[in-house]
Amino acid sequence: MNSLTYEIDQDGIATVIIDMPGKVNVMNGDFTNDMNTAVAELADNPDVKGVVLASGKSTFFAGGDVKTMAAAPGEGFNEALTDGISQGRTMIRALERLQVPVAAAVNGAALGGGYELTLACNHRVAWDSPRVMIGLPEANLGLLPGGGGCVRMVKKFGLVKALPYLLNGTVLSAREALDDGLVDELVENAEDLVPAGKAWILANLDNPAAAVQPWDAPGYAVPGGDLNNPVISGFANRQSFKMLEETRGLLPNKIKILDVAVETLKLDIDTALKIEGRGLVSCIISPIGKNLMASNFIQSTQVRRAPGRPADIERQTLKRVAVIGEDDDAKALALGSAAAGLDVITLGQSGLNAGKNAAGSLTEAEDLNQLGDCDAYVLTGGSVDAASFVKLTSDSEIPLICSFAKSGEAGAVSPCLRFVHSAVPEKPAVIELITAETVNPIALACAYDYFRSTGSVVIVSNGDSFLERVEKARREEVKRMVDAGEDATIVRNVAHSAGFDRERLDIGQGIESDPAVAPSSAMPSKEQISIMKDRLLFAPAIEAMRCLEEGVLGTVAEGNVASLHALDAPAWTGGYLQFVNHYGLDAFAVRAKELATQFGEQFAPPDILSQFLEDQRQFA
């Protein structure tokens, strides 16, 4: 067995160590076969009194193989996928039905399939460490928890409690997971995990119920009740309407999650698991599933690997930074830096409180001379005299990072690196570092390391702002619609139905009617609505391609991730460049030419699209 090994101690407790070739443990055919073999051997061994499931990696289990699932399907893909999911379901069920207690020893991330594996165990022990993350994030990848996650969460917690974890993809710390009942026990040290699991087994050797999952026990009732309970049936109905309102029908995996969760209330465990497996297959093969797996997993991983950071410069640990400015960006960056453990000195902000959970500190300065020695200076907008500050620090090797220093402005000098800060509620902040020949690579690396330490998504652009250009392209197209007589409210509603955030459209997006043009009072036809949606999606997508063509945007991955987190690209698209793939490059080129003929050269397909078509490539 290449995926795992096991040893049986003098008490008859088998410790199964999952340690697959490669960096992480994943749910694939090799693991399924090896675990099936191990479970069968343990079940046939009368000396085995219990099992502890542990990991030989720094993470517990990474879950499903998303790269394989995200691949373009070829001949036999659907059949192989269905068969693989069925085999995995059978394997986990066999583990669950072992006639001895099984404990999971969670030493790191147990997300998706990793947590689903622990749900098949009778007891879950986790290390109380920041390295431990617990949850089912599949909803954010266009998938559903199809390794038993939907079914077992509902069976274990009931519909009302389980549904938010399933729909929101919430990831918990070990302590939060204990408080919410997703794990049963914490240990302070990783080396205590397996002993704690064994101790629980030994304490329950005389308790037959310890080896039986609650839903396999006679007479088990789902917590909170099933659909015969009017409270639960009413909740399910309300969730259905809420889901349609929130997703606008554009995220079918979330609708499928709700369907499976509700069906679980009606069915026995094995039938419910089969329905869940079919639901997962439908999500994996759907175009929207491909979009979200590509952007929210594969490309997000690529962005975290820092493609735009100078690779030959050692990673730097910053301890003290100065944040200077009077705007909201300065406040957000100061608080975020303190929360990340940095000591922050501010100028231009008063009355900030880092909060009791901040690992760093906040100190207020009265003028530039009180800033003292720092590892980096960060300037945002406001009344701070940028020219004076640049002059003050011009002989320093300490990086100077400005959010407003554009070409020709006082701050655009050799030691200065410009950045664009985009903060959207409930999403990580996106920082775009804009480099040029005059920017010191050490300053770029330092800025990258600083912003990454605050939990921001960092991308690097060359000479111009990808974020500003793409946002401007969409904003100007909206303005063209309204200036041509489209009703602003209708434009907002159409944008909302396409997946854009209505609230963000209402603020600073140029949707104001020109008083010289009377807006149309007639409701648009389906064709007109389709045209408006295309204009809203094509304009930023074409500008994103132009940025890639000109070298402003470094990688497709950065473009898609930034599109989703900072530019309000509809989630179902997977980002503006992934949207081009989704639409089909051939079809996109044809439609773009039609839009250019009807509405202007802003829709003219860029040369890079023709190049990719000729090379039979996608934006990846």
Structural notes for this entry:
It contains 23 helices and 17 strands. By secondary structure, the protein is α/β, with parallel strands linked by helices. It folds into three domains: 4-285, 2-enoyl-CoA Hydratase, Chain A, domain 1, CATH 3.90.226; 320-465, NAD(P)-binding Rossmann-like Domain (Rossmann fold), CATH 3.40.50; 468-551 and 555-615, N-(1-d-carboxylethyl)-l-norvaline Dehydrogenase, domain 2, CATH 1.10.1040.50. The protein has an eight-stranded mixed sheet, with helices on both faces. It has a six-stranded mixed sheet with strand order 1-2-3-4-6-9, with helices on both faces.
Q: Tell me, rounded to a whole number, the average pLDDT.
A: 90
In spatial order, strands of the major sheet run 12-11-10-13-14-15-16-17
Q: Termini, distance in Å?
A: 35 Å
Low-confidence stretches: 405-415
* Biggest β-sheet description: 8 strands, mixed
- Structural category: alpha/beta
Which word captures the global form? globular
Give me the CATH superfamily of the largest domain: 2-enoyl-CoA Hydratase, Chain A, domain 1
Radius of gyration (Å): 27 Å
Per CATH, what is the topology of the largest domain?
2-enoyl-CoA Hydratase, Chain A, domain 1
CATH level 1 class label of the largest domain: Alpha Beta
| Number of distinct helices | 23
